[in-house]
Amino acid sequence: MARQKNDGKGRMGGRAKGTPNKATTDLKTWVASILDNGRDKFVESLDKLEPSEYIRVFTGLLNYALPKQAPTTPDDVLRKEKEMMQELLLGLPEEAIDRVAKRLQELQQKEENESKGE
Is 56 contained in some domain? Predict the structure, then answer.
């Protein structure tokens, strides 16, 4: 009897899982050799660019050297800070939490009194 799909015995054909595609590997190796051999020419070309064009190319190359940063908004920053404060508070003993809560209430009361003009 022929094997059935999903019979629990593994793959039915093709490359084994994790085996790289030979064509892709060859192409990547070829491109890497072109890039390696073209470094000197690339540097010479950079030296001939106008300053504004040089900056554009330079900043474009930074995208490949530095990790991408997630864009953040002020709301994201505040949310993250609140989460950190919450984690910090949860790690404190109860009496410290009570003292912090009491002080926050005092500060809020003082702020309300000042806004009323008292």
Answer: yes
Indicate the pTM of the whole model. 0.37
Domain region containing 111: 74-116
Distance CA 95, CA 31 (A): 64
> How do residues 6-40 score in pLDDT, each as one tens digit?
777 766 667 777 777 778 888 888 888 888 888 88
Q: Which long-range contacts (CB under 8 A, 24 or more apart) does 63-68 make?
A: none
32 and 55 in a common domain = yes
Q: Which two three-digit tokens encode residue 5?
A: 């799909």
**Other beta carbons within 10 Å of 70:** 6
CA atoms of 103 and 109, how far apart (whole Å): 10
How many domains in the chain? 2
The pLDDT tens digits for 65-103 are 888 777 788 888 888 888 888 888 788 888 888 888 888
